[in-house]
Model the fold of this input.
Amino acid sequence: MDVIPFLFFIALFFNIRASIKLALDWRGMLVTTRFVRDAYARRSELPTEEQLEREPGAPVFLHLVPAYQEPDIAVTVGALTASRYPHGRLHVVVITQEEEERAPHPAMRVSTGELVRRLRETLPPYQQKRLSHVVMSGPGRKAHQLNWALRPEVLREILTEETDPRRVFVGVSDADSIPDPDTYRWMAQRELGGQGSLAYQGIPLSLANYDRLPIRGKICAIQQSSIFIRVSIARLLNEVKRVRLLARLTARAPRLAWLVRPAFELFFRRSQICLGHNQFVRLDLMQAVGGFPTSGATEDSTLGYELGRRGVLIQALPMVEVTDLPETSEGVIRQNARWYRGVLDDIPFLWRVWRTEPTAFNLAQLVRHIGNKVVEWPIAALVYPVTGWLGWYLAYHHEGHRFWFYMATGAPTVSLLLRCGWAAS
Done:
């Protein structure tokens, strides 16, 4: 039996599929970059600190920075405390671990907590008031550190008792992040203008240490940042549009909308995940979900699924935050292994959600998570390069059939051009 025709069409299918996916990614990148450029072009329209100081409804920000063995913590904390926002409505909380306080890393002369305390002494008085430092006792990961800062006794110490949780946003940044100083003003404008949301996700780019990375590290930084731009943020922007489309249909034809809703949620809704930093969730909502999830390796993706389960649409935030990429191959591998472990940990969570609430939306989240992330992620790294080469090779077995020849050589070529195009941009 001649298997060449079979392999030819298998390779052609995967190459066409790759081209379509990359074309959609290209569109997502254009949508996101347009969104960011428009926001930065209108930065002068943001309310000033003086205007927000006089506005009683302006939101309060509780920005959490979990840190462990971070020698450059001063850069992140200094950037956050210097943000352009009214002094009494921004609170930056660094959470370190008692374990490190007792035994700092050998490469660091002092603990991260001591670095924070020393930094605080050098800050201007108004920035000193913005900065708090708490030490978590006992073992725990990032989610446990974040929840430590959300305990009632810590909130009472930092926030005034009359502060309404519905006005407080809990922000998260990594200890190696550099945020945009106007992030809070952009969100305040949305909240005061009646366009607010229960949750926001900004744009994280893994480019803070780009100049120090080797060539492979630079490629990883570009690739990782591009995923956030062309997939994660683009998905948030498009999800809002899809939900609004169904809302308009519901207003005009309620019965028709009721009929199409299950199919709409099954086939057209997309999962939302938080990205772990440059993210903001309202305090009352964080308290309602029980804080940051601790069941998996990645609390950010699980939190996004939990918010989606509750019908919360995460609003895209155009302000950019840059963060470091691990500077060694081992560090990158550990980071990606932890992310994939988090993907696996989310399976039982999504299964419990669907069993508890067997809706079309929850089923779609479970199926897409398993299909796209658990199955496709690891095999795509092998399948697409192999089928790309195979498509080119087998095309010459059909040189006499011009249509199939040009299809077989054109699909991987388009795929390669699209990938190089958005990587270069």
About this structure: The longest helix spans residues 4-41.
